[in-house]
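Bench notes, afternoon.
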Amino acid sequence: MTKQPKLKLRETALSITRWVGSLQSIVVHTFLFLACFGAVVTGVLQFDRMLLVLTTVVSLEAIYLSIFIQMTINYTTAHLEEVGQDIDEIQEDIGEIQEDVDEIQEDVDEIQEDVDELQEDIEEIAEDDKEGDALAAAHEKRLQDIHAVLQRLTSEIERMQK
């Protein structure tokens, strides 16, 4: 069979099984059974003949319904297998994504460690700069003190030379 007739047959089977499982089906079947018994009561059909026809029709209906129901079950099973395969693929993709996320987290952790180390280095440099500034100020003060002492000595020497 080509795809188009298979598709139509599948859609027909799905429609029939949907209809058979509906409230409309119960109403239609109930009226048909009542009509059959009504035909016996009104004398249109004999009871034996009506039972023979009704039994034959109901048997044929049961056979075709079981075939359509089985077709629907087969279609549903195939569809569920496809969905199962899709779910497996999605789970694999999720696993790969989780691995990628874990790797990214490791990279972020490493970057954070590098940032922490840089921050420590910056703090050390700032402390060294403060110490260096304090040391430079101390040297400057000493130089000024030495300069002041030298000027005093020079003035005393000049005074003594006079």
